[in-house]
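Handout, section B. The chain below has 107 residues.
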Amino acid sequence: MEGFIKLETGDKTPLREQVDAFSRVREKTTRTNLTSLERAIDFFIAQNDRTPNDLREVQTFSRSVYVESDAWGNPIKYERISDSKYRLISAGKDKTFNTEDDIIIKN
């Protein structure tokens, strides 16, 4: 097909390199945002002796840091495990939770 670039696995055309670089930037941005959210949750725990019930509670408590979605536009999943334990999960670039590209932060 004229006008189209054929991309195959392992093909390192300039376009593929740009796509890969953009994907790495999205992953790094998501990790940075999750870490900021983790700090806000840890501050909430220190002040309230418990984990927040949901991320809205963190937003109300700490307006300076709030992240609703990852760099791919997926919502961040917050799982309250106990009064002191929680997990933050990004579905990652495949936009599907519970797959190997998920980005998970747990305390």
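Note. The beta strands are 77-80, 86-90, 103-106. Compare this with the example in section A.
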